[in-house]
Structure formats: structure tokens, C-alpha cells
Amino acid sequence: MKRAVLVLIAVWLGSAPTWAVPITLFQDTDTYIERARDIVVAECLSVPPSQSGDDGLYAVEVKVLLVLKGNRKPGGLRVATIYPMKPAARYLLTNSGGSALGTDFLALPELSVVPVPEDFPLEKLQGKPVKEQLQRIFARQLFDVERQIEPLQEQQAMLAKAIQGRAYDLVKLDNVRIERVLELSTTEEGKYGRYLDLGGAKLSWSHSEPGKSGYLYFDEASPLAPYWEFARCDACCIEDLDGKPLEARFYGQYSPGRKRALRQSDYHTVRVSVGEMLLVRTARDPSLIYALETKSQDATKETIAARCAVIRTVQRR
């Protein structure tokens, strides 16, 4: 399974009984309120010394200051969350239901932990509808986010201008020659998980939607394996590339703009559906390009079958 999903497993941990609770995506404020079991504003009293606030579920001790929805009372409360929190700071906290780590208040959905600045007047929320209360808090946080990202946006514009015309990640070929096509399938899960073996270079794979899509990884599958770079390809099959010109920009794990260019891409992976084609190369040997066509995906065994062709941008001597 995809590595990021491991965070969901943590929801099963803690005191019994425990239920699995999905980390729901934010849609709109009305849906947010409807789904919430409890919504409170609380001061964070303490966090575990080892909590990172990124991948693991951890417990936080808070003091409830204001109840916007639900039957909670002002005072002490334990909250389980995956989002970063700091002692002495105030937060809007939303409970999605379930239990873990000795509490039945799980702040897991998107926007379930939102900072509330010290200078934000909580008394102005009194007597107002829940939706207006939330939108006032969200509006203040949006103002703070805008203020934080403004200098970054200025720097982003300068850096984008600075890298215009770069050619090291751009491939242009006048005439692609496909010499042979290999039939591949993922290995059985082993020390480094499932992967496709492309001439000795291991390209890690894990399933997403059973039988329909999966993830290819930017990072290495074994200690000495290369890092991978990807380019989207509009061709329907490998044969469509033969004898045609090719222009493609490759994106590695730290390439700017890769999420937009590769679509459905996160920090470690790029998502690929059955029937899609990707151009793949290693950072170690960028002159060797693999045209990878995903043919089928076994929903039960979580394996894929693919076709692969080698395209060289530099002729062998």
C-alpha cells in the first residue's frame, strides 16, 4: 500500500474500543459543520516531546475555551491529531468522531486544527451562528497565510524568471526509434517492496485504486538505486512514438512545477492509471529514456503488467 496511508493505521491504535476514522477532505463550510461531532476553540497545554506533527497520530492536552458545536464543556480535554500544535497557542479544533489514544476527540479532517491568534477576540463570536463563527476564524487565518506567503510569491516570481530557458531537463528528438519492446511485471513484494526492473534499475510501485491505478516512486528502491525522473506522454501506446518527433520535460522529486505538470503527484510519487504512458529516466543516466506503458493491474495481487521501450538521446559509439 502507499506509504502515506500508514498514518491511517495509527487511528486503530490506543484504548479499546477504537474505530477507523477517514481523514476527510474539506468541501465547504456547511458540509464541515454537518460532519463535525464537536467544534471548539481551545488553548494547547502540552504536546508529547517526540511529536513531529507530520506523519504520526499523537495526543495533545488542551483547555477548552469556547464551544461552537457539541456537548463539550469548558476545561481540560485530550485531543488526538496528526497536525502540528504548540503549547500556549489557541486553535479551532473539530472532532470527526471515533476514539484513539485515550480520547474520543479526533481532530483529523482537513481544517480540523486551525490556529486562532491571541489577538483574535473570542467574545465577538458569542451569539453568532456557527457558520459565521467559523468563517470569522477562517478569514483571520487566511489573512495571516496571505501575509506569510506574499514575500514567497515575490521570490517565486524571481526564481521562475531565473530558470527560464533551462535545457538540462528538456529532451527534444527529431525522430524516435523504437528498437524493441519489453514485457514487464512487478516483482513479488520483497525487501524493498514491489518494483519494475528496468535494466537493473528498480522502479518502486504500490497500488492506489485496486485494478485501476498505482504509484511510481521518485526515490530509490534500494540503497544504491538511482533516483527517478518522469515526463507525461500524450501518446496512447509505445508504437505511436516510433518515427515521430518528441519533446518532453522531465521532473524529479525536487523539480519546480512538477505537481502541476505530472498531475496527481505528491512528494514521493506520481500516480499512473492503467492505459497511461509515462517517460521515465534516472538522474544517473538521463540519456537513457524508458517509454513505460501500463497495460493491466491485478486488483487482488496488487501487481501490474507493463510494456517498456528504450529510447536513447545519445547514440552509442
Walk me through the topology.
Blueprint: H1 6-9, H2 29-35, E1 38-46, E2 58-69, E3 75-81, E4 90-95, E5 106-107, E6 113-116, H3 130-162, E7 170-173, E8 181-185, E9 195-198, E10 201-207, E11 213-217, E12 228-232, E13 246-249, H4 258-262, E14 269-273, E15 277-282, E16 288-298, E17 303-312
Parallel strand pairs: 3-5
Antiparallel strand pairs: 1-2, 1-4, 2-3, 4-6, 7-13, 8-17, 9-10, 10-11, 11-14, 12-15, 15-16, 16-17
Could you characterize what this model shows?
- It is a single chain.
- It is built from 4 helices and 17 strands.
- By secondary structure, the protein is α+β, with helices and mostly antiparallel strands.
- It has a 6-stranded mixed sheet with strand order 5-3-2-1-4-6, with helices on one face. It has a 5-stranded antiparallel sheet with strand order 8-17-16-15-12, with no helix packed on it. The protein has a 4-stranded antiparallel sheet with strand order 9-10-11-14, with no helix packed on it.
- Strand 16 and strand 17 form a beta hairpin.
- The radius of gyration is 24 Å and the shape is elongated.
